Amino acid sequence: MGVLNELENATVAVADRVGPAVVGIGAGWGLGSGVVVAEGVVLTNAHNVSDPGVTLIFADGRTVQGQVSGHDIDGDLATIAVDTSGVTPVEWADAPARVGASVFALANPGGRGLRVTLGSVASVGRTFRGPRGRRVTGTVEHTAPMVKGSSGGPLVDASGRLVGLNTNRLGEGFYAALPADDDLRRRVDALSRGESPARPHLGVGLVPGRAARHIRRAAGLPDRDGVLIQEVEDGSPAANAGLRRGDLIVQAAGATVTTIDDLYQAVDGLGAGEALALSVVRGAEELSVSVTFAAGGAREEGTA
Fold this sequence. Notes:
Shape: elongated
Number of strands: 18
Distance between the termini: 51 Å
Largest sheet: 6 strands, antiparallel, barrel
Order of helices and strands: HEEEEEEEEEEEEHEHEHEEHEE
């Protein structure tokens, strides 16, 4: 019973210390959770906030309107400016999470009440794909169970200090969190100042190489390495350049494209105002396409 009592006491202590700083994003069956990281600043995942105005529900039941101050879709981070009066921000850990360490995941999905679960760090330095397909690296993989609407909530150590921001389910009982390291703190500070990163955005949904080959074979088309365009966002640079659903991208900026990462590497390597030269296969015909991006380089919404 001693161990069980220790676990109970630790869970209650974490809930009491951190719970008031955990907020719901969106009322009712809401979009996710967030956490107060500084006075007037709530941190959450970018995929939880699609509009500038956001409804937040605090642990005491207070419902307020906040405004997104910074948005990084590819890094899956967003900050919300809101009145956090009376709420003590979560304390950041001074050391990274270690494999085997006990951690607690907290959430307040849609303001329906605080959830606290216990798990352990299974691995560090993991990789997953963000909302638009770019790889997010260095994440913490843990086993603290999370219900729907928990993304954007804090992952804390036994002392209630922030070691990560929960972002998605990896499957088979494992979950990913962005590590609460110095890099994350710098990014959060920049976002809270309104400094959202600007990255070129093609505006396409993609099918990776192996699946693309299967689709082309099923249509009776010859095998080619590349990534297949599954959808094209209206009004996007890809649409303006004439790219279509079913086009196979085989080269970007003169380099062979065999994976989605190859394409993103070419896009991210563009200079300011530079067009992206693509070779695409449409049916059996190979075409050259030039994609230009708007000044500033980015659109922070879309499919991929």
